[in-house]
Design brief:
The protein is mainly alpha-helical and about 90 residues long. Helix content is about 40%, strand content about 10%. It contains 3 helices and 3 strands, in the order βααββα.
């Protein structure tokens, strides 16, 4: 199922700007894929999507694996570790 960004925004209750930023991050990591066309429509990468049956899941994963090997679909990228200020040692005064 594809969804427009406006539909996703309405479902999760985010502002247009925050939704756009979030979708950009998800698209960069190939977690959410953007369809080609006039409108920005998105769908979840087949490796991460939910399925109605075991058979449907196995078929989708097999097709996705073949598409990744053929270069027609990007594999999802892991999230980059985020630095947090608590990881930075505090300066000690002399």
């Amino acid at each position: 199922m594809n969804a427009l960004q406006a539909e996703l925004r309405a479902r999760v209750g985010l502002s247009k700007n925050r939704t756009s930023i979030a979708m950009s991050h998800l698209v960069e990591r190939n977690i959410v894929l953007r369809t080609e066309g006039r409108y920005r429509s998105y769908f979840i990468h087949p490796y991460l999507a939910g399925y109605a049956s075991q058979e449907e899941m196995e078929d989708a994963l097999r097709e996705a694996t073949e598409a990744i090997k053929a270069g027609a679909l990007a594999a999802p990228a892991p999230l980059a570790p985020q630095r947090h200020l608590s990881a930075v040692p505090a300066r000690r005064s002399a």
